[in-house]
Design brief:
Elements lengths: L5 E5 L10 E8 L4 E6 L4 E3 L8 E4 L8 E6 L2 E5 L5 E4 L5 E5 L12 E7 L5 H8 L1 H14 L3 H9 L4 E7 L16 H14 L3 E8 L22 H18 L5 E5 L11 H18 L4 E5 L8 H4 L8 E7 L12 H21 L4 E7 L10 H15 L5 E5 L10 H6 L20 E4 L10
Parallel strand pairs: 11-12, 11-18, 12-13, 13-14, 14-15, 15-16, 16-17, 17-18
Antiparallel strand pairs: 1-2, 1-10, 2-3, 3-6, 4-5, 6-7, 7-10, 8-9
Helix pairs in contact: 1-2, 5-6, 8-9
């Protein structure tokens, strides 16, 4: 089953020529139909019998849709007119192969080599399984992954808040745009009910914006591109915030709404992001004068101070920072002691500076008790967790662990607690906190989510 892949097409070698490679991203339309997007963002297009394939289309329509016939790693590619593509001696693809090609070496038989298949998000799950099977898979997941017993567990640990990631299609439930599957709104409603039963508060985190704000699978990116920063997508995102704020703005369990998770520093200009944050802040304020509005730092080489200087909102504004000793070459060769010292020296110093700044509150919205140390002992993990808890407890708005449950044990908060790798009672949690301190867990209720 092809969900989404990056691939090379190695064309069949015409007489007297060498094979050539074409690198494309697959957009799955149906079980056998695909569109091909280049790494520069254009789509392969070919219209009419005998047409030549070019990478000039800025959007995908019928002329950009091809049918793939597959035999192991060999494929035929057919246009919507029924003509098969073949390679020419000049290195061009044309829709004029005579008849139906066999699977021997010929100009219309291509070898498919999967180079990368690293997107496994909501879009790929729903699009790859197809609507009926995806609906079954997601219904089973939503009914079993997070239950009321988990809120009981959190309550017993002294956790007072959960951060709940949602995708933009929740605003269109129960019939969201294809390929997304309905049911996430009911899951969020359940979370609010269970949270209220245990006096736990909820942060709704818009984790996936239309068009993708960072090109990563957890933002439901279709193919790794970041297309969010355009007026249509931003307007649609504000509609989602309006929907969430109008539905939950007066709910007693609501603590805050996070306007956007992890926008990309490389692909989302600061002025566009700040403008969106200002509009999102005002949208939430239409329905709640007191809910916290949370704005997330851009991921990449962004300075959180850029948001302190943006004058986004007047009160109950929070900046979300994500602290991982991962995803950066800086951490690759660090020892356990190095990692722990980095928490106490670098992270603590930054938090002290931001806490004392005249502006939004500080929220460590994601962190995890994991690192690049390959042979860390339980004691070393405990010390690493202790350091993070002590430092992140000083954030003026608190912290949220990523995530409550995960198939990788150190990312799984419940596993860490039950196996004594995280020891909440031995952290600064035993002190008297300011009223704004938040101890939270990131829980995936609305969509399957790989590690961010």
């Amino acid at each position: 089953m092809l969900l989404w892949t990056e691939m090379f097409l190695l064309r069949g070698k015409p007489s007297g020529s060498d094979p050539q490679q074409i690198f494309v991203l697959l957009w799955r339309v149906s079980a056998s139909q695909f569109q091909f997007r280049t790494s520069q963002g254009q789509f392969l297009t070919c219209s009419g019998l005998g047409c030549s394939v070019s990478a000039t289309a800025g959007s995908s329509t019928t002329s950009e849709t091809f049918e793939i016939e597959r035999s192991n790693e060999r494929v035929h590619i057919k246009t919507n007119t029924g003509a098969y593509l073949q390679g020419t001696i000049g290195g061009q693809l044309t829709a004029d192969f005579p008849g139906k090609p066999g699977w021997d070496d010929n100009a219309a038989t291509f070898q498919m080599i999967i180079v990368s298949n690293n997107l496994h998000g909501d879009y790929q799950l729903a699009n790859g399984y197809g609507h009926k099977e995806a609906k079954r898979v997601l219904k089973k997941h939503r009914n079993s992954f997070i239950r009321i017993d988990d809120f009981n567990f959190l309550y017993r640990q002294g956790i007072n808040t959960v951060r709940i990631p949602v995708g933009w299609w929740i605003a269109y439930d129960p019939d969201p745009p294809a390929p997304f599957i309905g049911g996430s709104l009911e899951a969020l409603d359940n979370a609010f009910s269970w949270a209220q039963a245990y006096n736990i508060r909820c942060i709704i985190d818009l984790h996936a914006a239309p068009g993708s704000q960072n090109g990563v699978e957890h933002s439901a990116s279709r193919d790794g591109f970041t297309n969010w920063p355009n007026p249509d997508y931003i307007s649609q995102t504000l509609h989602v915030i309006d929907f969430l704020a109008s539905r939950y703005g007066r709910h007693p369990a609501l603590l805050g709404i996070e306007l956007l998770n992890e926008p990309s520093e490389a692909a989302v200009p600061l002025d566009i992001l700040v403008s969106y944050y200002k509009q999102g802040y005002q949208t939430v304020r239409k329905y709640s004068p007191s809910a916290y509005v949370i704005i997330c730092q851009r991921i990449g080489n962004a300075d959180p101070m850029e948001l302190y200087q943006a004058n986004i909102g007047s009160h109950n504004l929070v900046i979300d920072l994500h602290y991982y000793n991962l995803f950066d070459a800086f951490f690759v060769n660090m020892s356990s002691a190095d990692n722990i010292q980095f928490i106490y020296k670098s992270r603590e110093a930054q938090l002290q500076s931001l806490n004392s700044a005249n502006g939004p509150l500080v929220f460590i919205g994601e962190w995890v008790n994991e690192w690049n140390v390959t042979s860390g002992s339980q004691t070393e993990y405990q010390d690493f967790g202790k350091a993070q808890l002590e430092v992140y407890d000083t954030a003026s708005f608190g912290w949220a662990y990523w995530t409550l449950k995960n198939d990788r044990k150190h990312w799984d908060f419940e596993w860490n607690i039950r196996n004594n790798y995280l020891q909440l009672g031995k952290s600064a949690k035993t002190q008297n906190f300011k009223s704004l301190i938040l101890l939270g867990l990131a829980c995936t209720f609305s969509h399957l989510h790989q590690i961010s």
